[in-house]
Batch of 2 targets.
Target 1
Amino acid sequence: MDKSEIIDFIHIPLLQQICEAYLNTKSSQNSNKLNVFTIASDLYYRENFHSDIISAFLDPSYNHNMGPTCLYAFIEMLNNFFGNKICINKKDYREASVKRESNRIDILIQSESNKAKHCIIIENKMNNAVDMKRQIPRYFDLMVKQGFIVDAIVYIPLEDSKTPNQSSWTKTDKTNVNPRLVILPAYSEVNSPNLVEDWIQKCILLTKNIDCISIFSQYAELIKKLNHDIMGSVMLEKLYNELIQFEKPQSVQTLSEMLGKIPEHMANRLLNHYKNRIGDFYNIWKYKSNYFVLDFTTENHNIAIDVIASLKGYHISVFCRNGNIKELVERKPIKMLDKFNLKDDDRYHNEDFGFQDEQKVIDWIEDFYKEMKK
């Protein structure tokens, strides 16, 4: 694999964007957050779980004591964000009922007020299930045959890259469904609308019921967690699709092997930089392939500087091999304590630098060495 091949690989389309999106997803994850739903069971991975919660709050007759507040907030959200294609009159839903799995429709909001029959079809895809053949058009046809006006068809994926599969739809299906179809992802950090920010959080502001607020808040956090989990997979899928189009697939394996050796190379660079400093350091060596060590003596104390290299960057650990480094440093000027923060721990001090910060690592080592030798 020559230099040109490496450059071609690194600059494949969307690689930088994919990597940045994946990194943002990982940094946003907070799987350790306390959540009653994850404590109770693993049912939150199932589609029915989410449909049950959403339908409960949309249902004016449910015992949340909010009446039609959440339903009207849902309708207002649809009108505000999708007003270019749908316009739902809240008066048509004064006597609304909400059904689960009516004719296999996940959530059906229907009303027969004002001498007309209106409905909103909600298809929940938060478990990332595939679309069945003509699934949404079949629901539309069914409700029309029952005399309903279908005001909107709301498709709810977990994240915004998933859209309905229309490969089995007829031309008539597309004509009937698409003008009423809206994609409402459960959550998105970059796009609006989404279920969490534009409905759930609004419902929290519309109630003083502490139970409802707690459930909404916990549920919103659960959706965010699931969204972050799946977004990592989405980014990997995008990267995979880019890699399989690469003209020289063996280069992918070669570059992967080379990346695995980068931490060792980083440690070797530091070793080469300090190899002629044996007069200052009585030991200059590598403990492991990516583990660079410097030892020096001051006031009869043996000080060790360990630098661990990885693709994340550099981690420096400083300690005294034959004593307490804090006791030694406490006799130094206060400015040194502040500069190196060595008072935080009786034995160790840890410092982290980024992948591109080799010079900063060297500068830190030099400053620390000079201060300790004064």
Target 2
Amino acid sequence: MPVPDRLAAALADRYRIERELGAGGMATVFLAQDLKHDRKVAVKVLKPELAAVLGAERFVVEIKTTAALQHPHILPLFDSGTADGFLFYVMPFIQGETLRDKLSHETQLGVDEAVRITAEIADALHYAHSQGVIHRDIKPENILLANGRPMVADFGIALAVSAAAGGRMTETGLSLGTPHYMSPEQATAEKEITGRSDIYSLASVCYEMLTGNPPHVGSSAQQIIMKIITEQPQPVSAHRKSVPPHVAAAVAKALEKLPADRFESAAKFAEALSNPSFTTMATGLAPAAGVRGASRNALLAVSAVAVVATAVAAWLALRPLPDQPVLRYRLAVADSAMPVPGAYAPLLAPDGSFLIFRGPVPGELTATQLWIKRRDSHDATPIAGTRDAGAASISPDGRRIAFDYGGTLRTVTVDGTEPSTLVQRLALLFGTTWLDNDRIAYTATSPRNTNFVDIAVIPAAGGTPTFLGLDAAERAAVVPQAIHGRDAMLYALCFSPVICDLHVYDFRDSTSKQLVSGSTLGVYAPSGHLLFERGGALMGVRFDVDALEIRGDPVQLLERNIDVNTPRTFSIARDGTLSEVLGSDDAGFAAQQLVWVDRTGRQELVDSAMSPLRMIVAGANHGWSLSPDGTRLAIGLQTAAGDNVWVKQLPRGALTRISFDQIGSAFRPKWTPDGRSVVYLSPADVRIRRADGAGRDSVMMVWQANEVLFAPDGKTMILRAGAAGSVTGGRNLYVMRIGEDSLPRPLLAAPNFDETSPALSPDGRWLLYQSDESGRNEIYLRPFPDVDRVRVQVSVSGGVAPLWARNGREIFFLSADWRMMAASFTAAATPTIGAPRVLFDVPADLLGVERAFSTPWDVAADGRFLMTRLVESESSRRAAIVLTHNFFTELRAKLPR
């Protein structure tokens, strides 16, 4: 988020606010330069709604109490005060991560590390309590890790806020304390809170470090609070057997409901954690002196007890095991392995022991590969040989992966060895699944009708594929999902990507039938249920797997926000583990601002009065382009009215919508050479509209294009169509002369490579484009229209998204490591191109520069670059991988047999 001007001005005499670091329930944190002491600091500014009801003077008085705390594991308070209505306090800026960040990466910590962190925090709490200060908000977010050393932040801030509010916290709509870590006395709003409340909160943090979850979880704050008040947490050892008994006992005592039953001090808690003999109850009886004097009746009684105990043990062994508790949490991986949004969601291994997802190839902008995250490993690792893998599936034994690579069906072991190619040149964009008896089903162009998709089956060892003939008239069979143990398969039959019905195919008698309408993805759960998606919800219904029939009515299991770019959003393992891909209400989108970027990388808002734009974060970039005279901007935007093209008068003029027809989507606009009209794309055709919005849209051609631009003559168009996995083999460039050609014709004779991002020189005589023909994306130059006369490689070590300077004497592109590059150009029969040089590093918040196959930026006549700057944190817009353990428990409760 940009720094508020009023805040920057209010603190300008003491601190230079540089950028926002994050926001919590009570405050927003900014990185700042302490002008007096020449050091980096963290400035926390209370939320306006909270500051509005606080007395500033009382807040400053109360917060001074915490400034006196001096302890190696307490983050000190440098400064506090009020400025222009802002209430703020200042702490050191720590280079490192919070405990929450660490838990997000690792889920669980080593026992020794968790105990050490807990003991060191307990020492800080013991010291603070001895000074009469109680934290009241111990949680992973308030524990910073500086080179592994924990430091507690916001010490006493909750108390200061509460005291300064004078009991008026309800007016703010905020609460003190975080539900997962609240003590029972906090949850019941007790007036007197002692240091034993902090001990409970610290024990909750320790519990999460050891087990991966806090002691009590729930779908709402109210539900969590009720559990804290009424339910005993499960022992730590029930979730992790490797936790020593004394550690489990210490945590259990610290989590007692009554404060009097907990440790009398935080120091006693730390001592118990390191004492192997600590226990909360007697573990056995005192030894008897002997049995010589024991009566025969006593021996008989003991024998009878033994017989009864044996019988009870036998009954316990034979009765059905109780359902295990449902555990749901988000999975986090390192930024270097962050899942890439797209059409193929993460896959669980059949036994739930690992997860496979698409992630980046380090150092490359557009390439992806498959990554594996094992349950017993902290980190995800890439799978060799899976570069640019598309639809994938895992073998029933969990040893191999089948995947689509640019129209080729391949297999590889999960550790990246033994690669094999089964089928080449097939449209595999719509799924593959590993069937029983070591066979693979996959989608491919129907041999009966090349406009539709059928499902074929091939032995995993190789052989001749068999098409099942499931493509009905004007419908495509997609997204196959095996039903293991039954030799059957679920699949969708679709009129369009959003109009599908779920079917089942029985390999025993080669028959199929419809199960559910309005669903693209169905998965069989071994608990005897069918899971499917419909209307943004995860649905479930009882399923007779022998008869392949639904029993009863479907029930909504989860209401979900789904990543708009990911049709396959869940998978389930035999052990009842469910993986989902979820997003926020704006999943896939982010608020962005238009900025000018000069040749040094300095940014300036195009229009400071303009509201942020809602734009695609990744994938199908909606695009923008400057008019020939540089006075207007055509831009594709996602709004409540759908995907449409708008025109912005520069610099501070109106933003006006110009596309209105109900065509479902309008995107990637380009100007005609005379600047009077805008050409843009829809899912099925290429359209043109006057730039002032007058008249109506006109269809220029019925042809599915992904990029379009005009040559200076106004009659020649260059287009890009196709995608990796298409029958033609990749993305390709086409040319069309209006009035002469009935359809676009191929421009370059290289159908097996991705060729994208065309850019014509201002005089229309030279064509720039990017191609992966060398194995990675590079920028190439050819004369136009005689493209076969000469070819020159412009980039040296990778490049994407080329554009020309408006004078035609310079070429710009992005390097593989996100730098804006420039190379001089001199036209000749064999043109001269200077060595590319770096202009500036492109920062991550310029989201317009994304992993796309079009050029998401433009250049003005004065040499400035037009880009977009992210307003909100990218991480808040990423789709989340959510894992649910023991999901069968939830299924059985909502769909009893």
